[in-house]
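Weekly modeling sync, notes
Attendees: S.R. (lead), two postdocs, one rotation student

Agenda item 3: backlog of single-chain predictions. S.R. asked that every request posted to the team notebook include the full sequence so nobody has to chase files. The rotation student volunteered to paste the first one in as an example of the format we agreed on. Action items at the bottom.

Example entry:
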Amino acid sequence: MNILVTICARGGSKGIPGKNLSKIANLPLLSYSTVVAKKFGDMYEADYGFSTDNVEIKSLANSLGFDTEYLRPAYLATDTAGKIDTIRDLIHYEENKNSKIYDYILDLDTTSPLRTVDDLVIAFEKLQSNPTALNLFSVNKANRNPYFNQVEIKENGFFDLVKKTQTAVLTRQSAPKVWDLNASFYFYRRSFFDLNYRNAYTERSMIYEMPHMCFDLDEKLDFTVMSYLIENDLLDFELMKLT
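Predicted structure, as returned to the notebook:
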C-alpha cells in the first residue's frame, strides 16, 4: 500500500498575511502539521510531499524534516487556485519522482492544526473499511444549523431559513444533524484525482467527527485564542507538538 502525505502552504494570504511563517504558542505554525505527518507517515511507511510557492516556507519545511525540491507553479499560487488542483499537481510530481502510483493521499492543512495521530489512524481505517468511498474529511458538530438558526437572502429580498423540512423545526435538538468542516485533514483514494473533482465534496464522501475541539485560523484573533489555549494547557486533548 502506497501512501503520500501532503502539506500545502502558500506564501500569500489576504486574511492573515504571512500566516504560514508565523508562530503559535512560540512554535512555527507549520511544525504542528509536520510532526503529526511524520508520526503517521512512519507508521505506514508513507512518502511526503510539500507544496509552496515561497522559498522561506520551503526553507522552514526543510528545517522541520520535510525536504522537498518541488516549487508550486505560479498558476496554482493565486487566490483563485483550487486546493484539489494543487494537490493533484504535487501527486503527479511525487509519483514521477518516486516511480510509483499512490493508493491513498493524506492532506494536512497547516491552518487547522488541532489534530492527533489517533484522529488520523481512526479516520484512515474508516475510509479503508468502505471500498466504495472516494474520500474522507474531518468535521466537528456544528454550532449553527441551517434548518433552525441560519438564514439567507431569498429572491424577493427578504430572509428565511437556509434549509427547510416538510415539518417546521421548532427546536435545535429536533433539527437534522449537521457538521462543520474544520479543514484539518483530508484522506483521498488515488482514483478521486482521476475523476476531475474540483472540491472535496462528492456523492461518495465520508466524515470523521473529531471527539475534541478543532478550529482553523481565519482571523488574527484566532492566533491569539489558539496560542492562549495551547500555552495554558486548556485544550480538551493532548496536542502533539515540537518542544
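Discussion: group reviewed the output briefly. The mean pLDDT is 91.
Action items: rotation student to repeat for the remaining queue; S.R. to check formatting next week.
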